[in-house]
Design brief:
alpha/beta, Nitrilase/N-carbamoyl-D-aminoacid amidohydrolase, seven-stranded mixed beta sheet, six-stranded mixed beta sheet, 13 strands, globular
Length: 311
C-alpha cells in the first residue's frame, strides 16, 4: 500500500429504475460530480444498474406462480441488465480511465449466450484507474425473496485485488453474514472493503461495523435512495403506499468505518446525492492488526482448515 490517504465518493442516489440507457447517462453525471469534488474512488450501491428489486418484499402477489405482472417486471429487469464485458462496462471503463479513478458498481448482470443465459445475477464490478475490470463478483446466495429474480453466484470474484489505491474488495448485502465468505475476503488482505446494500439500516450498520473490526480494514458501506414512484408500474402497491409516491423506501444510510469499528463518516440517512469523504490515515489498518489479525497471528491454521472453490 502506497497511498496514505484516499478520497471516496459515495453515490447515495438511485438509478432511473429499469431504464438502462437513462441510468448510464445518470451514472456519467454522478461520476463527473464526484470527480469535481476530488473523489478517487467512486462507489455505487447494490444492483444500481438498473435498480435493486425492492418490489419483491413490498408488492403483494409478486411471488404468485404465473403472475403476469411479475413476469413482465422480470423481463424488464433482464432487458435492462448488463453484460460483462459489454457496451455499458466499456462506458464505465472509459469513465474510470479518463478521470483516473476507481469505480465500484453494483449491477444486474446477464449472460446473452451459452450456459446461464436467461439468468440474472446480482453482481459487483471493480474497475481500476487504467480502465480495466479488476474484479467481477457475483452474489453467492440471493437473499430470501431475491431467489425469485437472481441466480446463485460463484467464488471467482471472492477476493480483494490490487488497484492504484490499494487492495480493494467487496461483498453484496447479506454475504456479510456468511462467515466463510468473510474469511475468504480477510485472507485476501483488504485495505478497503466495499459493502453494498439496498440501504444501510440498523442491522446493516452492525454488519458493516463488525466487518471492519474483524477484517481490520476500512469499510465503505453504500446505500441508495428509492421512492414509491420508482417501483414498477405493473405491480400493485400495498394499500399504505398507494397515495404516497414520494415516500422513501430505501433511505441511504451510507457510512465509512475505521478498522477498529468506529465511524469516520456516520450514517447518512436521507442525504441524497454525492457524498465525499477523505480517509487520511490508511496505515491505520496495520496499527489495528497488532491486536487482531484473523488471517495471521489470531488464526489457528493448526486447528482449522479453510479453502475456497473459485471455479
Amino acid at each position: 500500500m502506497t497511498k496514505k490517504s484516499v478520497k471516496i465518493g459515495i453515490i447515495q442516489s438511485g438509478p432511473q429504475f429499469l431504464d438502462l440507457q437513462a441510468s448510464m447517462e445518470k451514472t456519467a453525471r454522478l461520476v463527473e460530480e464526484a470527480v469535481a469534488k476530488g473523489a478517487e474512488l467512486v462507489v455505487f450501491g447494490e444492483s444500481w444498474l438498473s435498480g435493486y428489486p425492492a418490489w419483491l418484499d413490498l408488492c403483494p402477489e409478486s411471488a404468485v406462480w404465473g403472475h403476469e405482472p411479475t413476469k413482465e417486471v422480470f423481463a424488464a429487469t433482464y432487458l435492462n441488465s448488463v453484460t460483462i464485458p459489454g457496451d455499458e462496462t466499456k462506458v464505465l471503463c472509459d469513465l474510470a480511465r479518463n478521470h483516473h479513478i476507481v469505480i465500484c458498481m453494483g449491477v444486474n448482470e446477464i449472460v446473452k449466450s451459452g450456459p446461464g443465459n436467461g439468468t440474472i445475477y446480482n453482481s459487483l464490478l471493480l474497475i481500476d484507474a487504467d480502465g480495466k475490470i479488476a474484479n467481477h463478483h457475483r452474489k453467492l446466495m440471493p437473499t430470501y425473496s431475491e431467489k425469485l429474480l437472481y441466480g446463485m453466484g460463484d467464488g471467482r470474484g471472492l477476493k480483494a485485488v490490487d488497484t492504484h489505491l490499494g487492495r480493494i474488495g467487496g461483498l453484496i448485502c447479506w454475504e456479510h453474514w456468511m462467515p466463510l465468505a468473510r474469511q475468504a475476503m480477510h485472507n485476501s488482505g483488504e485495505h478497503i472493503h466495499i459493502a453494498v446494500w439496498p440501504w444501510v439500516h440498523d442491522i446493516h450498520q452492525l454488519a458493516s461495523r463488525h466487518y471492519a473490526f474483524e477484517a481490520r480494514c476500512f469499510v465503505v458501506a453504500v446505500g441508495q435512495i428509492l421512492r414509491v414512484k420508482d417501483l414498477p408500474k405493473q405491480l400493485k402497491l400495498p394499500e399504505g403506499l398507494v397515495d404516497k409516491p414520494g415516500e422513501l423506501l430505501l433511505k441511504g444510510g451510507s457510512c465509512i468505518i475505521a478498522p477498529d469499528g468506529s465511524y469516520l463518516l456516520g450514517p447518512q440517512v436521507l442525504n441524497e446525492g454525492v457524498i465525499v469523504y477523505e480517509i487520511t490515515d490508511m496505515e491505520r489498518i496495520y496499527k489495528e492488526r497488532m491486536t487482531l489479525d484473523t488471517s495471521g497471528h489470531y488464526n489457528r491454521d493448526d486447528v482449522f482448515n479453510f479453502s475456497c472453490n473459485v471455479d
